[in-house]
Amino acid sequence: MVMTTFKVNLLLVVLLFEGVGTGIIFKQQQRSVVNGVQFNHPFMQTMLMFIGEALCYLIYRLQKKYQAADFEHELKIAKEKGLNLNPSKWIFCIPTLCDFTASTIQFFAMSQMPLSIYYMIRGGNIVITAVFSVIFLKKQLFRQHVLGLFLAVSGFITIGITSILVSQDGLDPNQLLLGIILLVISFFFSSGQSVLEEKLFKTIYLHPNQLVGYEGSVGIIITWIALNIFSYIPCPQSMADDCPNGMMEDVPQFFKTVFTFEGPYQPTLFFMIILGIIAIAILNGLAFYATKYASALSRSMISQVSPFVVWMFTIAIGWDKFRVGQFCGYIIVVFGCLIYYEVIVIPFFGFNRNLKANFHNLAHHVASTAEVKPAAEVDQEIALNQVVPSIQNQNSEQPMNTAAAS
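Below the sequence we write its predicted C-alpha cells.
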C-alpha cells in the first residue's frame, strides 16, 4: 500500500475522531433510560468490547489474504529475530484477564463522572506503567522521564480537585470521587497488561489484529464466566443506586432494556450497542495502520488532543461545562506527557541525557553497519518492532481496550 503524506494525515484525523466517537458511544449507552431504568451494565459493556475485538480476527484474515507480500516479509524478519511464530493462544489469558478487570472497572468509573474528566484522568496510567517497567522490565528512567511524570501527576491532581470542588449541577462530589478512585485502581491492571504483553513480545510474534482477535475471543469466555458469578453478587452500598436491581450485573435486564423499543432513548440505545461493537473493531484496525505508517510524534499528539476534543464536544452538546482549573490541569498533563515521551526536549541540566545517548548509539550503529538496508525493508522492520507500542496505545486509549488514539 502506497501511503502519501495526505493519506497518513487523513488516517490520523479519522483515528482521532474514531477514538473520540467510541468513548461517546459507550457514554451515551450509560446515559440511556428505558422504562425508567438507567442503563448501568459495565460487565455487558466489557462483553461488547471483547466481541468487537474478536471481530479483528476477521480483519486479520482479510489483511492476510489481500496483503500477503507484507505478511511474508514481516514473518521473515520475525524468523530472523528468532521469535516464536506459533505461540500457544492461551498464553494471553493473564493479559486478557487484566484487560477484563481494567475495562470493567473503567466502565464503572465512566458511569460516575463526566466523559471529559474520565478521558483526562485515564492518561494517568502512564505513571503506573513507568513504575512497572522499572520494576519488572528493568528499564531506566532519566531526568526528563521523572519531570514528565511529576508534571503529569500534578495535572491529574489539579483536574481531580477542580472537578470535585467545582462539580456540575446534579453531580454528587462523592460519586465523582468514587469514579476517580476506581479509575486509579484500574491503572494497575491496564499497566500490568501492557508490561506482560511487552515481555511476551520479546519472544513471540503475532500480527496485531491476530493478537486482538485472540484476546477478544478469550475475553468473551472470561466475561461469560464472570457474568455467571457477579449476577448473584449484591452491589456495594456506595454504588447500590447505580447497579441493575442492586446486583453487580443483571443480564436479563440488559437484553430487556436493549430490545424494548419504547421511550425517547430508543431505538438510539439499540444502535449504540451495535455501533459500539463495530467501533471497537474499526478502532483496532486503524490503530494498526497508524502504528505502521505514522510517526511516534504524530501518534503522541493524537493521544494528547483526544481528551480536549471530547471535552469540547461534550460542552457543545450540553453534557459538560468549561472549568478553568480543569483546563489548566489538562495543559500541565499534556506538557508532562510530551516531556516524558521526549517530544519536548529540555536542552539543559541533563534533561536531554537520554536523547544524547540514543543519538550516540545510533551513530555508532550506522558507523559499524557494513550493509545498508533498503528503505522498504527498514520500514517493515520498524513496523514489526512497533507491535508492542501499538498494543500499549490501544490499552491506554479506550474506555476499554479502545483508544488506540491515546
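The first strand starts at residue 33 and ends at 34.
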